[in-house]
């Protein structure tokens, strides 16, 4: 029922939707949320309260995929823009070839970084699905994440958590690591955050942050 490029979660009775096509979020109030729940579950016809959101729906799709979260804790007034203070101490250094590779990924992904969000996500899904996992060196992953933080302060683009996570995700995919890229949200004050987990361990980020956010997308 909901198109493939939109990811919806119900946060304490209000739906939040991640829009991969436009790289933005959509917010429904409680009345709109009830109307959408009823519509996607087949218990009512289309409600005029959803007139601004007709682009979300495809009648040929059967499942609704709206995840419900109750009493999500969230973190108030948290800054997602500066993730450098999450750096863990390096146990080992990454080799020069991998450093060059990360810089190349950096420029490929973020020349025009505000565009092609859907394509970047879908390509990552495709590559990850078709990659045989052979590596699990968490220390090396942390060192790679630290290197991304390090170069982001010296290269031209302003990287936030999403950009840092995407660069690391593509690097780990090509290096054949088992990982998950996750995007989580809180409702009031609304904030979104992206991070990487390897074997369910959060990499170069606050280790308990994911417990306080509703996960809207996991790859």
Automatic annotation (TrEMBL):
Instruction: Please give the organism.
Output: Acinetobacter seifertii
What NCBIfam families is this protein classified in? lasso_biosyn_B2
Pfam families according to UniProt: Transglut_core3
The protein here is known as Lasso peptide biosynthesis B2 protein
Q: Domain named Microcin J25-processing protein McjB C-terminal: which ranges? A: 135-217
């Amino acid at each position: 029922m909901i198109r493939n490029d939109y990811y919806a979660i119900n946060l304490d009775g209000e739906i939040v939707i991640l829009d991969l096509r436009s790289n933005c979020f959509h917010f429904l109030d409680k009345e709109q949320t009830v109307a959408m729940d009823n519509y996607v579950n087949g218990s009512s016809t289309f409600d005029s309260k959803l007139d601004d959101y007709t682009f979300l729906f495809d009648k040929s799709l059967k499942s609704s995929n709206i995840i419900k979260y109750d009493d999500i804790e969230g973190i108030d007034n948290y800054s997602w823009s500066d993730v450098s203070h999450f750096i863990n101490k390096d146990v080992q250094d990454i080799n020069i070839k991998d450093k060059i590779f990360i810089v190349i990924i950096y420029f490929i992904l973020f020349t025009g970084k505000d565009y092609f969000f859907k394509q970047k996500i879908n390509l990552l899904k495709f590559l990850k699905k078709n990659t045989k996992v052979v590596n699990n060196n968490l220390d090396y992953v942390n060192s790679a994440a630290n290197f991304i933080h390090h170069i982001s302060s010296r290269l031209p683009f302003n990287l936030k958590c999403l950009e840092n996570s995407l660069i690391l995700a593509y690097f780990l995919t090509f290096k054949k690591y088992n990982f998950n890229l996750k995007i989580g949200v809180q409702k009031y004050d609304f904030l979104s955050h992206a991070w990487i987990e390897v074997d369910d361990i959060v990499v170069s980020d606050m280790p308990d942050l994911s417990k306080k956010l509703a996960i809207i997308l996991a790859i």
